[in-house]
Amino acid sequence: MAGEPSGDALGARLMAATRRLTGGQVRFIGIGGEKMIAEGLVSLFPMGELTLFGVFELLPHLPNLIRRIDQTAAEILRVRPDAVIGIDSPGFTLRVAKKVRAAQPSIPLIHYVAPTVWAWKPKRAAKYAAIYDHLLAILPFEPPYFERAGLPCSFVGHSVVEGGAGRGDGSRFRAAHGLADRDRVVVVLPGSRKGEVARLLPDFRATLERLMPRHPNLVAVVPTVATVRDRVAAALADWPLRTILVEGDADKHDAFAAAEVALAASGTVALELALARLPSVIAYRLNPITVALYRRLIRVKYVNLVNLMLDRMLVPELLQEECRPDRLADALGRLLDDPQARQAQIDGVAEVARWLGQGDVPPSERAARVVLDLVSQHPNRG
Predict the structure, then answer these.
(1) What is the pLDDT of residues 286-318, one digit of tens each?
(2) Are 40 and 183 in contact (CB under 8 A)?
(3) Which residues, 6+ apart, have CB-to-CB distance to 123 below 8 Å?
(4) Which of 283, 252, 74 is nearest to 169 (CA)?
(5) CATH class assigned to 170-355
(6) CA–CA gap between residue 129 and residue 288 (Å, rounded)
(7) Of 146, 321, 322, 327, which one has the greatest count of Cβ atoms within 10 A?
(8) 71: CB partners within 8 A, 6+ apart
(9) Do residues 266 and 303 make contact, with C-beta atoms less than 8 angstroms apart?
(10) Which CATH class is domain 5-158+359-377?
(11) Partners of 382 in the beta sheet?
(12) One fold for both 5-158+359-377 and 170-355?
């Protein structure tokens, strides 16, 4: 079960690895997006219904969310799968798992992507331990937080390293889109949720408009996903500079290779940008009341995982009241104007790929091996 595009990518890679390891003797049902469906998932309903974030953004959709939780739990109990894997999105996956655990304890429950108990709500470790049989962690320092609470946890690495973010073809992209050598490409990533796009795209537009007098050859490349593509395309129609809308990982990664800088919503894409060695500015804004609640709970200094892992502000983060066009333009302009500033970011993320699990065994295969071992040790006897 995945609830947003980043989870869909994780799920698709896990499914592909599981199929390879089992010689194709596996079947998938659940909830996922286009990537999981392409790997053979039969999705119970469109994943886009779950792509929500923030307390007040969620409230209007709560009745449908509750209905989908009940529907999913009932389907799991009917099918009796060999394992249930929830991928992040705890507002949905945790609630489904809780219902399944109460009704049928024999079904193995696994969660993929550890909740950030090191950042906020440390008591969640015990909550997960009471429900799940195993946790798959994407960061190397996470397992002890959960093992202390009695939940077995395996570090498998972050499958973003498998996505090809650092292997794009910039020359191909420039040739395909008629970009001249003098054109300076900035990749603009406003997020994959409707709320993110609505909040961030106007400020991103105003940011680039401020930079145009100094950089008249600026070209914005905007990667998007199916769930928000039409919304993004409509917003780009009146942008004051040339824009190129792309969809799909191949074009996105080629755009990374063709670009000098990126302006991005906070999220998994920040790791992709680090792997691509593309200097970036990270921005985000939520409903002010939602933020006021979160700020009382947050225990870390940064939101960008690159900065968290390095324990310093390497990649500029402009959040909430700091997320405004003048500040964003200053930060992005510095990267455009100063080659040394760009190189400092490139050099600073050199260790991040290793920490995320790059190596001989892909993270998705490590995760699949853990899942298959658990299934073999914990057969669903009913």
Answers:
(1) 766 655 555 555 556 777 888 888 889 999 999
(2) no
(3) 117
(4) 252
(5) alpha beta
(6) 32
(7) 146
(8) 44, 45
(9) yes
(10) alpha beta
(11) none
(12) yes
